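U., I forgot to send this yesterday:
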Amino acid sequence: MSIHGVDFSGAAQAGHGTWIAEASVSDGDLRIESCRSAADRFGVAERAPCLGQLVEFLRETETVGLDFPFGVPATIHDRDSWEGAVEWVATVATGADGFQETCRSRAREATDGERADLRRETDGPVGALSPYGSHVWKQTFYGIRDVLAPLARTDAVAVRPMQEGGDVALCEVYPAATLASCDLPAAEYKSGNERARERRRAIVEGLEAETPLAFAGRVRAELIEDAGGDALDATVAALAAYRAREADFEPDRPWNPVEGYIYV
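Result:
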């Protein structure tokens, strides 16, 4: 059994910010065998070709945790299923800015102008932000349009918990919430300064002590030295995916089936 974790980027050069952790599972242990950027793995950094390569890669996996929102608040769209909501995101605009503008406009209409950035039911309990807010709107749009939608349309892939069956299971994860659930630092570890480096070290040591995680070869050192924190986030995404699989992908908090669910 293999598990993958993906720290996703919607930037123009997405391959540099998208990292993939690959793990093996044996006797209840989750061993991170490698963690590489998508640019390194696929040989391309530009968003469109890189995400195309990511889709083809994911088709051949087993269980994957992806760090981007798998949906938007039900208030924003008029669809009655999660699949319909995904298609709405994929077709509502030609770019991330247009997607964000449309979402905010609909949110203001729904709240009489009081709120622009709404959250899903699954976001609040884990401290996640609005899926189309200023921090993650690009990840949401390009993640859903260019990665999730093409995979969700196939019988071979099941996006959990909204879909059943499939040879490949994909699930939405949020590394900050997973770290918080382990009582580990969930912020201020993404920098090149010594304080951030020591926080990454503390996180790695805490994961080793409190979770099934172990690290092959130089992976442990690489997680500590990666100033951007992307390698560490991909690793924690793999841990969240492992936890989800161990729980048979059963949600343990309230959620709206047309919005998606975050596994921690």
